[in-house]
Specification:
CATH class of the largest domain in chain A: Alpha Beta
Distance between the termini of chain A: 72 Å
CATH architecture of the largest domain in chain A: 2-Layer Sandwich
Structural class of chain B: mainly alpha
Distance between the termini of chain B: 49 Å
Low-confidence stretches of chain A: 62-77
GO biological process, one term (chain B): DNA-templated transcription initiation
Domain RNA polymerase sigma-70 region (chain B): 10-76
Structural class of chain A: alpha+beta
Radius of gyration of chain B: 16 Å
Helix content of chain A: 25-40%
CATH superfamily of the largest domain in chain A: Fervidobacterium nodosum Rt17-B1 like
Strand content of chain A: 25-35%
Number of strands of chain B: 0
Shape of chain A: elongated
Shape of chain B: globular
Strand order of the largest sheet of chain A: 1-2-3-4-5-6
GO molecular function, one term (chain B): sigma factor activity
CATH architecture of the largest domain in chain B: Orthogonal Bundle
Largest interface: A-B, 23 and 35 residues
Protein name (chain B): RNA polymerase subunit sigma-24
CATH class of the largest domain in chain B: Mainly Alpha
CATH topology of the largest domain in chain A: Heat Shock Protein 90
CATH topology of the largest domain in chain B: Rna Polymerase Sigma Factor, Chain: A
Largest sheet of chain A: 6 strands, mixed
Oligomer: heterodimer
Order of helices and strands of chain A: HHHHEEHEEEEHEEEH
Domain RNA polymerase sigma factor 70 region 4 type (chain B): 99-151
Strand content of chain B: under 5%
């Protein structure tokens, strides 16, 4: 047997063509770029939107004053904040108007359910504390909410509580939601290590020292500091009324230039 | 580039399979090698900048995958790397011929073997093989004729 014979043997081997085509097709399928599953999602948006609308309307039909536009979901806005429930109470000496937001169409149902439950409980607790009159019960109490930012990536929900007894107080709270990943953005999540707390504190105190309006330096910036991320992708720290400035100034929102904290950021996914 | 790679895969599937089978004992193992190589290539296709290199790059991945598979098999069966077989699945080879062939091939390095497989058996050009194995064309040529002489001496002369 010569090498030439060997070659003939080689070229005459049976080729399992069908299996061969199958394994190559398998490889092609296994490595196919993931298609965006827009179709089922778009269609489910319509379904969820319709259910949410019916639900919300049913809960709110007794309140004729509610702004109708707040209740009608716009289907093309994937995530929308609806009015879930409004607690209203008016008598001779007191006034309450507590609006409870309802997040709809968030891709992650678990997250939206969790947040909605928390908002609902908070609203009910506020109302109950108001109705359960004691000497400390304020004269008036309102809670409103707004979509501060609602873009491709983020939804920032602002809740504002105005309480007046002898004095008035305003409390602002923000929930920054990553719509794509279905999670609530927290301040520590943005940074590599705790060093950001000192950096933010120093920056804030510099601004306070430089400004005539602000008068009280902050002692520390903690992980629970109120904040949100604005449409430009900048970090905004919010200080409650009276926290760093005299009461008459109101709440202060301080935008932190990204350069100041760039070295501490884990990524530029949220803060750009 | 992915589309072009898929076309190249389909065009060369028989050659890919035959080369893979040259390293292992069974059809199933050879098919595995083809599939793994195809997946590797499809995942990494971004690395290839020019279409003309797709084929040689694909064969390079195939040969490396095949050699890996061959080594793993040798380890499983606790035999040394030096007794790796050359085209064990080739049927109709007389036992004496096989012995002579194995002996001849055991003297050849992975690259020398690959050159024989690709040029003598698959009729690829020296230019293509040079790209596949990342050698110069002249090295491929001289190595080929040297290796072939060795094989011929043992095969045609001995038996």
């Amino acid at each position: 047997m010569t090498l030439a014979d060997l070659k003939i043997q080689y070229t005459q081997q049976d080729i399992p063509t069908e299996k061969l085509t199958a394994v190559i097709n398998q490889a092609i399928v296994a490595t196919a770029p993931k298609r965006k599953r827009l179709n089922w999602w778009q269609s489910s948006v319509i379904g969820v939107g319709a259910v949410a609308a019916a639900f919300t309307l049913a809960l709110n039909t007794s309140y004729s004053f509610a702004n109708a536009s707040e209740r009608v979901p716009v289907v093309r806005d994937a995530v929308k904040v609806l009015l879930f429930r409004e607690y209203k109470h008016v008598d001779k000496t007191s006034y309450a108007d507590i609006k409870v937001p309802l997040l709809t169409n968030l891709r992650d149902r678990q997250l939206s359910d969790k947040l909605n439950t928390a908002y609902a409980e908070e609203g009910r607790a506020l109302y109950e504390s108001f109705m359960n009159k004691t000497n400390d019960t304020p004269k008036s109490m309102t809670q409103t909410y707004a979509e501060k930012v609602n873009n491709e990536q983020l939804l920032v929900l602002e809740r504002r509580q105005d309480i007046s007894s002898a004095d008035t107080a305003t409390k602002l709270r923000y929930t920054t939601i990553d719509k794509q990943n279905g999670l609530v953005v927290t301040l520590p999540m943005l940074f590599k290590a705790n060093a950001y707390q000192a950096i933010l504190k120093n920056y804030v105190n510099e601004q306070i020292a430089a400004s005539k309006q602000y008068d009280t330096p902050v002692a520390a910036i903690g992980p629970k500091q109120t904040f949100y991320i604005n449409n430009k992708g900048e970090l905004v720290l919010v200080f409650q009324r009276g926290e760093i400035a005299p009461m008459y100034v109101g709440a202060v929102a301080m935008t932190i230039p990204t350069d100041e904290i760039d070295s501490q950021l884990i990524s530029h996914a949220y803060v750009k | 580039m992915r589309e072009e790679l898929i076309a190249t895969l389909k065009e060369n599937q028989t050659a890919l399979y035959r080369v893979a089978l040259g390293y292992v004992h069974t059809e199933a193992e050879a098919l595995d090698i083809v599939q793994i190589s195809a997946e590797k290539a499809l995942r990494q296709v971004g690395q290839v900048k020019e279409k003309q290199y797709l084929k040689t790059w694909l064969f390079r991945i195939l040969i490396n995958t095949a050699i890996d598979a061959q080594r793993k098999q040798a380890r499983r069966h606790e035999i040394g790397d030096d007794v790796l077989t050359f085209m064990p699945a080739l049927a109709g080879v007389a036992p004496e011929t096989r012995l002579a062939l194995e002996q001849a091939v055991s003297d050849l390095s992975d690259k020398e073997q690959a050159i024989i497989r690709l040029h003598f058996f698959e009729d690829q050009t020296f230019g293509e093989i040079a790209l596949t194995l990342q050698l110069s064309e002249n090295t491929v040529k001289t190595t080929y004729y040297r290796s072939l002489k060795k094989l011929e001496a043992l095969m045609d002369g001995g038996i």
